[in-house]
Specification:
Blueprint: E1 13-17, E2 21-25, E3 69-71, E4 77-81, H1 90-102, E5 109-113, H2 118-121, H3 148-175, E6 182-185, E7 188-191, E8 196-199, H4 200-207, H5 236-241, E9 256-262, E10 270-274, E11 284-290, E12 293-298, H6 301-310, E13 312-315, H7 328-336, E14 341-346, E15 358-366, E16 378-383, E17 388-392, H8 397-408, E18 415-419, H9 435-447, E19 451-454, H10 457-462, E20 470-478, E21 484-494, H11 500-506, E22 528-536, H12 550-568, H13 572-579, H14 584-597, E23 607-616, E24 619-631, E25 636-648, H15 655-674, E26 680-681, E27 684-685, E28 703-708, H16 726-738, E29 753-755
Parallel strand pairs: 4-5, 9-19, 17-18, 21-22, 25-28, 25-29
Antiparallel strand pairs: 1-2, 2-3, 3-4, 6-7, 7-8, 9-12, 10-13, 11-12, 14-22, 15-20, 16-17, 16-19, 20-21, 23-24, 24-25, 26-27
Helix pairs in contact: 1-3, 3-4, 8-9, 12-16
Length: 756
């Protein structure tokens, strides 16, 4: 049935459902449809107060409605979540927002992953309220850029408050009392004067006849009982016992396993192949040409892997990308020797360097990085000619659905996309080229039977879509008193969006893809600031990686700042304080983290501290890294001791989730700062797994302490916030011991540095 869209601001409707339940949409179409459970496991779980844990009626009919809230007759509340769960706690944070305004009994709240639908479940951040203009008929159902809580916060509060309002109206009718005499608590409407209590489940059918208010009254944050509490994750139990499906876990009857043999050189087309030896492998079924290479079909993973090893293929490698990363240093330095596209020009800009008492310059280089999530890419797909069903973990399900439909020659409504849990993503599962979904659709079309396309970790690491290789040239000039009078920052980076023009246009609506991100936002009070960029093109496929260009540019800014302060004979912390007087949020986290680390007290022998500050995603963070540096004859041996973080993220919906995200960002950042590097030799990626693309081990992880500053401001993002400051704070700590600037990452490339 074709559904017509009602005006966006009429965002709520109540509809009666079978069994006396209540279904509410906070952005809705004129019709709703019922569908079978498609494998999107509903979640149960909760905090330590859940003993024993209440259970919903197993006989209650399940629905996949066009809505965000479902209240069942047995008084359970299900929150249908539009964002993806990739480890960050979405399936707890979003239900907490709704449950707070609904006054729901948190022990009887569960979650369910929404279907793919940008219009219904798209994040409001990416719609008109997020600055994309009047896109009343469109949106983005993308989980990226630390936008989930800050994007859904207002709409989900309104949804909960509106439902609470109509439940109170229904109770007032049944009790024949004024609404003003009622209150709500733990999924009950209560009339204190008579002692009567009606559960939400009892009231659901009657409330369905009510019209929700378009502008419901929201709670005073001072009265919050759920928001601001460290509630245990709703999905914790099921993730622990394995009852929730990740993509790699998921199976459908009769499916085969497919692994794709891809060119070792990016962009090289397939000439021919010979699979005759593969027929000696038990379980091998056959092979097919697909745009990305050779689809190897087998009964199971082992058979597909063994068959792929003995298939021979010829690729036209001369037509591919054959660069070697050793050549990039000179190429990028040459780019940065020329003026680029100006993106910030304060006062005199570069002319501010004239007449300086002292000028310092430094060239920074950052390698390609891969995402390396614990769960490699995978797609399960059942293509039936006139329809298709897909199961996988995705950060962008509505676009994945559309891309698959286009390749299969279907309309999007004929493709049912089931978004499963993802074992990490860091941006890889929101690829602008939709490569792994494209590939799976082509494979399904060729094989024409239920299948799972599986990537090994080697496929994942060698398969492309890296953080771009980047070089920065920084220059700072000091006056006679040692004050910074001018600052310049030039960036050369492979563009994420095909061309500098496309990137510039996209920069009008979002900061997340700009190569200058983190450079243009340089926070210090300096009179003359100039930033320009070069967009580099080659055939190495690139993509955003956790914190995007902030990770490179903030490293350059914060380490060069300390370098300049050492040259001026000034204390880096004192100068940061002096030069952030116009940035109260920066100053607050800076002072807080210095206090946490005991910055004013003398550290133990050989112990050194470094500091860095950063703001983005509507949040601010300052971090201190403490290390022990023991200088030997030929080495500076570094041991990580402690890392402190002070965070201002506005309202922290769930402080425990915020801390977890900051801590995971720290581990991610240490991995990349110490070891992370993808290198190419004549077009071939040399790394293949965690033995040569190393991530931080548990024994290397320092003590981590996080403080969240109190705030009643709108929530900011935290998923990427913990990444950019770690590497510069670490480098600054080492520099305080050695006096050296470390302009190249990973730090393990510096011959004198050894890390325990």
């Amino acid at each position: 049935m074709k559904q017509s869209r009602l005006p966006r601001r009429d965002f709520l409707r109540a509809t009666a459902i079978a069994g006396g339940g209540l279904l509410v949409a906070c952005k809705w179409d004129s019709g709703s449809s019922r569908s079978r459970d498609s494998g999107n496991n509903p979640g149960r779980g909760g905090g330590s107060e859940r003993e024993p844990e209440p259970q919903p009626d197993p006989n209650a009919e399940r629905w996949t409605p066009n809505a965000f809230i479902r209240i069942s007759a047995d008084n359970f509340v299900t929150i249908i979540v539009g964002a993806a769960e990739i480890g960050q706690g979405t399936m707890t944070a979003v239900p907490m927002i709704v449950a707070e305004e609904l006054d729901a009994d948190w022990t009887r709240v569960s979650w369910e992953q929404s279907p793919a639908s940008a219009i219904t479940y798209g994040n409001p951040f990416w719609q008109a309220e997020g600055g994309l203009g009047d896109l009343d008929q469109a949106g983005l159902q993308i989980t990226a850029a630390s936008t989930t809580v800050r994007g859904y916060y207002d709409s989900q509060r309104r949804a909960g408050a509106a439902v609470r309002a109509i439940l109170m109206e229904a109770a007032a009718d049944q009790l024949n009392v004024p609404v003003s005499s009622l209150r709500t608590e733990d999924s009950f409407v209560i009339h204190d004067a008579s002692g009567r209590r009606l559960s939400y489940g009892e009231l659901a059918a009657a409330a369905a006849d009510k019209t929700p208010p378009s502008s419901p009254v929201l709670k005073d944050p001072a009265s919050f009982k759920i928001i601001g509490q460290s509630k245990e994750r709703l999905d914790a139990k099921q993730k622990s016992d394995g009852s929730l499906d990740y993509g790699f876990d998921f199976k459908i009857p009769g499916m085969v396993t497919v692994m794709v043999m891809r060119s070792p050189v990016f962009g090289a087309p397939l000439l021919d192949w010979d699979d005759s030896a593969a027929y000696s492998v038990s379980g091998f079924i056959g092979s097919h040409r697909v745009p990305s290479g050779i689809a190897v079909v087998a009964e199971n993973f082992w058979a597909a892997e063994q068959a792929r090893k003995v298939i021979t293929a010829n690729w036209l490698t001369s037509a591919g990308e054959t660069l070697s990363t050793d050549d990039l240093v000179a190429e990028f330095d040459n780019r940065n020797s020329l003026p680029g596209l100006p993106v910030r020009n304060d006062q005199l800009g570069e002319l501010g360097h004239l007449g300086a008492a002292q000028t310092l310059e430094a060239d920074f280089h950052f390698p390609y990085l891969t995402h390396a999530p614990m769960e490699p890419l995978n797609v399960t797909i059942d293509y039936r000619g006139d329809s298709c069903e897909i199961w996988c973990g995705s950060q962008w399900p509505d676009m994945d659905q559309l891309v698959a439909a286009t390749i299969l020659g279907l309309t999007p409504d004929r493709v049912q996309f089931n978004n499963l849990l993802s074992g990490g993503g860091f941006g890889r599962r929101a690829c602008l080229n939709f490569d792994y979904i494209q590939e799976a659709a082509h494979v399904a079309k060729a094989v024409n039977r239920p299948l799972k396309v599986v990537w090994t970790r080697e496929d994942d690491i060698r398969g492309g879509y890296y953080r771009p290789y980047t070089a920065c040239k920084l220059k700072a000039s000091l006056d006679a008193q040692g004050n910074v009078q001018a600052w310049s920052h030039r960036v050369a980076s492979q563009t994420l969006l095909i061309s500098p023009l496309v990137e510039a246009v996209t920069g009008l609506v979002t900061e997340e893809v700009q190569t200058s991100q983190g450079a243009t936002e340089m926070p210090y009070d300096i009179p003359n600031v100039y930033v320009d960029t070069h967009a580099v093109l080659n055939r190495v496929p690139v993509l955003w990686v956790r914190s995007v260009a902030n990770a490179t540019n903030v490293y350059a800014v914060e380490t060069f700042f300390d370098h300049v302060m050492r040259a001026a004979g000034k204390d880096p912390l004192a100068q940061r304080r002096s030069m952030l007087q116009s940035k109260p949020r920066h100053l607050a986290v800076l002072n807080a983290v210095a206090d946490m680390a005991g910055w004013e007290s003398a550290p133990a022998a050989n112990v050194h501290r470094g500091i860095a500050v950063f703001a983005s995603y509507a949040s601010v963070i300052a971090q201190v890294v403490e290390v022990e540096v023991v200088t030997e004859a030929q080495r500076d041996r570094v041991t990580l001791k402690r890392i402190f973080s002070a965070v201002d993220c506005g309202t922290a919906v769930n402080p425990d989730l915020v801390e977890a995200q900051i801590e995971s960002g720290i581990v991610f950042a240490l991995s990349t700062a110490l070891f992370g590097e993808i290198t190419l030799d004549n077009g071939e990626v040399k790394q293949s797994n965690f033995h040569d693309y190393q991530v931080l081990r548990m024994y290397q992880t320092p003590q981590i302490e996080t403080r969240i500053l109190p705030s009643t401001e709108h929530p900011g993002g935290v998923g990427e916030l913990g990444v950019p400051c770690v590497a510069p704070a670490l480098a600054n700590a080492i520099s305080s011991a050695t006096g050296e600037l470390y302009p190249v990452l990973p730090l393990s490339r510096h011959a004198r540095l050894a890390f325990d």
